[in-house]
Write a structure and sequence with these properties.
CATH superfamily of the largest domain: Periplasmic binding protein-like II
GO molecular function, one term: thiamine pyrophosphate binding
Pfam family, one: SBP_bac_6
Keywords: Signal
GO cellular component, one term: outer membrane-bounded periplasmic space
CATH topology of the largest domain: D-Maltodextrin-Binding Protein, domain 2
Order of helices and strands: HEHEHEHEHEHHEHEEEHHHEHH
Helix content: 25-40%
């Protein structure tokens, strides 16, 4: 009877011109909202590995990390991209990673200003982020929330490094009194509130990255925005296999691909971050419009041990 059924199935497949196929196994990448990958890179990975790539975006780096903590007993993906050195302590404390995290990008968290806005308003731009508490810059600055945003937490650490544990709160109080806008994350701050990107925001100074002006080069060959390159924060992003990954084999292949020359060479143009692979290609215009910071502070602090205390003190000012 079984033999008859098998023959019937074979005949049916031959009649319809179909053959049995095996669906590619899925590997899921959990990433922050700023993660970008081209269709060509997706096709390259899927062809090389035999796995189908799915991407789950979960907010800013802080939101991604917190989401992974809440779901660690039932992981929402196989690989994470975008936990950075401000939130790495949370990942380590909660044993989120199977093995170790690998550096995948770096960038410098710096303030950018809208050059055109300052020219049109006949106002000298700030020369340092320390100037942002001055009356001349009242109501001109937008930052991202250090409770949920990695650039926000990076700048919070920068202020601790600059003013000390006993002095950073006074700076933030001055910044608040001077009308600083606090956005939920970098995307909201940069693309919605900042005047120098989409051009519709009300704030000509934004907490962003040293490389951001390379994305704002206009038809005249000049960037609309300028970075403040002193006392920035060197942000490092990581990639790693999640503990309890459903597809550990696919996860390993995906991590290797994200560190490859092929993918790393696409990151500057898509995400405006620097690749860690020394063989990756960085656009020539970055030397002019998106150079690394001249100096950085804050990244050497023990962020993992002090993050909650700093955030609580910040919240007491802004809540």
């Amino acid at each position: 009877m079984k033999r008859i059924a098998l023959l019937a199935l074979t005949a049916a497949l031959l009649f319809t011109g179909c053959t049995p196929t095996t669906q590619a196994q899925v590997v899921t990448l959990v990433a922050h909202d700023s993660f970008a990958i081209s269709d060509e890179s997706i096709a390259e990975f899927e062809q090389q590995s035999g796995f189908k790539l799915e991407i789950f975006r979960a907010g800013d780096a802080g939101s991604v990390t917190n989401r992974l903590v809440l779901t660690k007993d039932s992981p929402i993906g196989d690989v994470v991209f975008g936990i950075d050195n401000t939130f790495r302590g949370v990942a380590d404390e909660n044993n989120l990673i199977d093995g170790s995290l690998s550096e995948v990008t770096y960038s410098d968290v710096c303030f950018n200003y809208d050059r055109v806005w300052f020219e049109e308003n006949n106002l000298a731009p700030p020369s340092s982020w320390r100037d942002l508490v001055l009356p001349a810059y009242e109501g001109l600055t937008v930052v991202s929330n250090p409770l949920t945003s990695s650039p926000g937490l990076a700048f919070l650490a920068t202020t601790v490094a600059a003013f000390g544990e006993d002095g950073f709160e006074a700076f933030w109080q001055q910044l608040k009194d001077n009308g600083v806008k606090v956005a939920t994350g970098w995307e909201e701050a940069y693309f919605t509130e900042f005047s120098g990107s989409a051009g519709e925001g009300n704030y000509p100074v934004v907490l962003s990255y040293s490389s951001s002006p390379a994305a704002e080069v206009r038809e005249n060959g000049v960037s609309q925005t300028v970075p403040l390159l002193d006392e920035c924060f060197r942000q490092i992003e990581y990639v790693g296999v999640l503990q309890g990954a459903t597809n550990p084999a696919g996860a390993k292949e995906l991590v290797e691909f994200l560190l490859s020359v092929s993918f790393q060479s696409t990151m500057p143009g898509l995400m405006y971050v620097y690749p860690v692979n020394p063989e990756a290609v960085v656009p020539a215009e970055w030397a002019r419009f998106g150079p690394p910071a001249k100096s950085t502070i804050g990244e050497d602090l023990d962020i993992a041990s002090n993050r909650v205390s700093w955030q609580d003190k910040w919240s007491a000012i802004f809540d």
